[in-house]
Every structure is written in C-alpha cells, then in structure tokens.
Amino acid sequence: MRVLISGAGIAGPTLAWFLAKTGAKVTIVEKSPRLLPYGQNIDIKGSAVTVMRKMGLLDEVRRLNTTEQGTRFIDSRGRPFAPFPVKEGSITSFTSEFEILRGDLAGILYKATKDHQDVEYLLGTTIKEVISNDNDSVKVELSNGEVQEFDLLVIADGQWSKARKQCFPSESVKLVDKDMYVAYWTIPRLPSDDNWWNVYHALGSRVITLRPDPHGTIRAMFSLMPCNATQKKAWQEASRGDKQTQEDLLRREFADAGWQAQRLLDSMDQAPDFYFQAIQQIRMSKWSSSRVVCLGDTAYAPTPLTGAGTSLAIIGAYVLAGELSKLMPGEHPAKALEAYERTFRPHVEEVQKIPSFVPAIAHPASAWKRWVLQTFLSTLSRIVAFRWFPGGTAEGNDDGFKLPLYTRLEEKGSQ
After folding, report:
1. How far apart are CA 385 and CA 11, in angstroms?
2. Measuring CA to CA, how many Å separate 233 from each of 11, 24, 214, 239, 254?
3. What pLDDT is attached to residue 74?
4. Which residues are within 8 A (CB) of 198 and not within 5 positions of it... i.e. 6 or more apart?
5. Locate the FAD-binding domain: which residues (predicted)?
6. What is the pLDDT of residue 396?
7. pLDDT digits (tens, 9 = 90+) for 366-376
8. Which portions of the chain are predicted below pLDDT 70?
9. pTM of the predicted protein model
10. Residues 279, 301: contact at Cβ < 8 Å?
11. Are β-strands 127-133 and 119-123 bridged in parallel, bridged antiparallel, or unpaired?
C-alpha cells in the first residue's frame, strides 16, 4: 500500500511507524523545512502509554520529561497555597507522569521513523491540490510540482488543515468555540524559577502560568475568557490578526494582572515561538471519504482543556494502522477507514464532552469567585496528600478505551 501522510507532528509519524511494520510505503509531507523544536507541554496517558511502549519509545519519553514536579497554585501575593505533586503511577496531579514538550515528542517520533526504508519525509513540502479521489487511487499535486498517486491519503496536519478543506465540504466540519483564548511562548529562566507548574488566577477571567522545561528555559502562558461582547470582539479579531496585534492586546489586557505578568509581557518581542489561539474543538460528521481520511486534531481536536489531544492522536494512529493491516491485497481502504471510525469515534466523542462550567470555573471574574476556587483547590490539595487517597494510574486503559489487538502490528518487523 502506498500511503501519503500530510503532517509530521504526532499522529502522522506514529501512523507511519506502524504502517511500515506491515510493509506499506509511506511518504510524509511537512510544510516546515525542518522540524521546529517548538510547542508547549503535552502529556501521554491511558492507552497512549501502551502504544508508546509497543513502539519502544517510552524510555525516550521519560528521558525528555519536562522535569515538572507537579502543579502549584499561586495567590495574589505570589505565594503557593495548593500543591499537587506528581506521584509515580498516580493521576492525582494536574501534571502528568509522562509530561513532555510537543516539539520533543515530535522529534522522538521523527527519529524513530526517518531512517526506515519504507518511510520518506519531504520537508518543506505540502499538498498543493488533491486532483482526484476515486475507486482506483488518490492523485495529488505537491508544492514541489510533482504529481503522484497513492492508495491512501491521511490528513494529519492540524485543526486548520488546508488539505481537509479540499476533500471535505465545510458543512461536515463543525467548530465548537469554548470562549477562551490562549497565548504561549518561551522565556529565559531566572534563578528564582522552580520546577513546578505555577498557576495564578488574576481577576477579570485571566490566568497566568509558568512551567519548566528540560532545556533551561520556562514556558509561559496567558489565558482569558472575555467578560463582555466588546472584549470578545477584540479577542476574536486578534486571533485572526498578526503577531503585533496580538501582543498589543495582551499588553492592554494583562498590564494590571499582577504576579509575574510584566515579566511575561516584556519577553514577548524576543520569543521565537509566540503562539496565539482561540480554543476550539473540531468535530467532523465523517472522518473519511473514499481514499482520504483525517487523523488527530484534523479530525477531532478536543482542545487543551481535555488534556487528551496527544493521546487521541497516538491511539487514533494505532487504530487506523491496525484496521488497514487487516485489509486483503487489493481491497479498497474504505473498509478499514470505516472500521477505524466505528471503533474509535465513541471514545473520541466521550473525550470531547467538556462540562458546561469548563473553562469558566478556572477563570474567576470576581474576587469572591476566586476565593471560592482557591478554597476548593486548597482543600483538594490536602485531601489528595493523604496516602490512602485512591489516585488511579497513568497507564493501562484508565482512559476508558481498550486497545484492540492487531496481529500484524504485534509481529516483529524491520523497525
């Protein structure tokens, strides 16, 4: 099987790794001329941990752990009041046992696949046009001018995929807006910084966080939920604007936020990885069309609010590869694509169900709402500190999805 994958993030290379075990010939196109080491914290949990173990990459994930000791909430005077330390084998912290930067995980997956004889990367290359998608093949024109035919096209290049727009009507893709905006970037580390995820709730539905990384820098974040229509319009326009517009808005909105807001505002100009986004889910009515299928955030971005986007990408890639591995020679891939969706969609839809009070509960607009939140967090922190508290586990199938067993993916291949 000849497979073209658009996107060299998390889902695409994971899929390539498993497809290569079955003898498929995989080409991955990626718009960036090189893999960028950017991206904030992500975590791997539940069945995704099992998939990474199957790939033999779990030790490498542990090696590049962000070094985050846990999550700690900060009061208006900069004092920590509710710590949730990481405990091995437990999920009682907002920090995962398998915490890693997105760029580091993408690098691990790239290194695990780039030298395989059946995997080819075309960096600095995109899909210019999907010429045809019929019973015989899917034909594409690449940005380098080449026209090629494949048995399958997998679109895994993110929730704003241009390739998806070519293959699926707009009415089949639903955006679910969570009324929240986030800006991320990397800042220099100071001697006073520690290895906790420090979270500060400013008034006016604003949040500031600082997180450590294994590279000697600190990952910063601002988030906000608009309090009125005028503010909402300004943030909507900024999300579609340029970096300068976004930075100017952040300076206006966070100038009086307190804690380390000014430090973050002063560092934006120099950040190589400044990223501003509206928090929105992607929900597709159908993930595939003939020989084209969407994977990961392209098909079902759950938002960072779930903490499950990376895990869904990894598990989805495994299930898709597994269903494709069951095809008989010459059999149309649509059969496998439908089985992938039938198997995995119920879990995805469950993960995407975000309670109505989220994320508003984490963005208190007034002093009394912040007091209620801080009191709750402080009490919860004391409860989970007890040894007898049932903490669950970061591994196995605690995410509610039991990995199917695919015989061909279990066989020892040339990986």
Report:
1. 36
2. 33, 48, 37, 10, 17
3. 96
4. 72, 73, 74, 80, 209, 210, 211
5. 2-351
6. 43
7. 999 999 999 99
8. 88-92, 387-398, 413-415
9. 0.94
10. no
11. unpaired
Query: Secondary structure of the chain in the HEC alphabet?
Result: CEEEEECCCCHHHHHHHHHHHCCCEEEEEECCCCCCCCCCEEECCCHHHHHHHHCCCHHHHHHCCCCCCEEEEECCCCCEEEEEECCCCCCCCCCCCCEEEHHHHHHHHHHHHCCCCCEEEEECCCEEEEEEECCCCEEEEECCCCEEEECEEEECCCCCCHHHHHHCCHHHEEEEEEEEEEEEEEEECCCCCCCCEEEEEECCCEEEEEEECCCCEEEEEEEECCCCHHHHHHHHHHHCCCHHHHHHHHHHHHCCCCCCHHHHHHHHHHCCCCEEEEEEEEEECCCEECCEEECCHHHHCCCCCCCCHHHHHHHHHHHHHHHHHCCCCCCCCHHHHHHHHHHHHHHHHHHCCCCCCCCHHHCCCCHHHHHHHHHHHHHHHHHHCCCCCCCCCCCCCCCCCCCCCCHHHHCCCCC
Residue 388: what pLDDT? 57
pLDDT at 394: 47
Residue type, 220: A
Per-residue tokens: 221: 């974040």
- Cβ within 8 Å of residue 77, ≥6 positions away: none
Q: CB within 8 A of 116, min separation 6: which ones?
A: 16, 17, 20, 414, 415
- CA 9 from centre of chain: 9
Q: Tokens 């727009």, residue? A: 165
